[in-house]
Amino acid sequence: MDIEADDIATTVLDTYDSLPAKYKPVKATEDFFQWVPLSGIVAVKKNEQKPRCLCLGTGMKCLPVNQVAEANGSILHDWHAEIVAIRAFNHFLLHECLELATSPTSISPIVRRREIHELSESEGLQPFSIHDDLRLHMYSSEAPCGDTSMELLMEAQVDATPWPIDQLHPATKKLPALLRGRESFAELGIVRRKPARADSPQTLSKSCSDKLALKQCTSLLSACTSLLVNPGNAYLETLILPRSQRVEHACERCFGPRGRMKPIATHQWNGGYAFRPFQVRATEHEFAFSRRSKPESSRELRTSNIAAVCNPHVQEALILGRLQGRQKFDPKGLSAICSKRMWRMTLQVLAMLGTPRLLQSISESSHAQEWKKSDLFADRQRVKADVTAEALSGWIRNDGDDFEVEPG
Questions:
Q1: 254: burial class by Cβ within 10 Å (0-12, 13-18, 19+)?
Q2: Residue 48 — pLDDT band, cuts 50, 70, 90?
Q3: What is the Cα–Cα distance from 237 to 103, expressed in whole angstroms?
């Protein structure tokens, strides 16, 4: 029996409601109402109806491209709610792996040790896996930015006619390689950057629609977590959206095997990777801090600048990709889900496991970007290369954040 979409949404919403006020937008006043998107990932055991919220995130901003090089692995590039939730999920998995590596008798309800006979070049050599009988679901309070939300953006205009394509390159007379999230409504099914005002600094962070589409092939695992956890059971089964945010044909175009993902719909790769499309289902529940929840008594709708991170191991409030209240380069301002701290935890687990193949490759450099170029990530990089060449063409890497990782 499939779990109801409303049950998944309620599990995330109830978890968020239990957080202290400092992780939430300020209360509504007569002057304004603050809103923020929310996303969360829920695990459900097969044939059971007991959802468990593993993590959640809120947020709606990202790092301009001219600041990426100085991020040094310490500042999030993208703190839109869906991406914060996925990073919080990976942080949770790393903690589970750490506990399993620390004690041979430890048991996790989410992660298990893989048996020797499961390890192979074709199916992956990772020592851990998510339990086979678990299914993963994501709830989001807003349609993901980018292709999934284009029809909603058009409908929100006073004149719903698609904007004319007036930003052609002066020499080639072609569209920019990567459109901003709200540019050229007539162009559907394409890769877009995060939406932003026309006068805001440029970003190369891809839209949440594009990132989630890619996750249907790479799984929810980040690069560092993919060294430890096999991707086979780490794919989303469903994405739950409020009914007002679910445009069926837009979801099919963006994520489905008959839409833009059709060129790779039958693909399978080494390492346990495959195209595993999720269903997009509707819930009747609305988030208390969604933009549709603004009371009539509040005159103005404003965005909240707080991004919240929550899983069983961490609760944080972030501002501009770092811990709230910390200066930009304060070493105490690093979020638990920033790249540097996640890689540091990965090294800690690898050291405890003592896996010669992994340790040897990692020891050849202390730079995360160099590790990603190694054979350890060959399968994952092949997946990304194929998908961005055949289905998500126009994908431009947001490079420049090369940082060292010191063992924790």
A1: buried
A2: confident
A3: 31
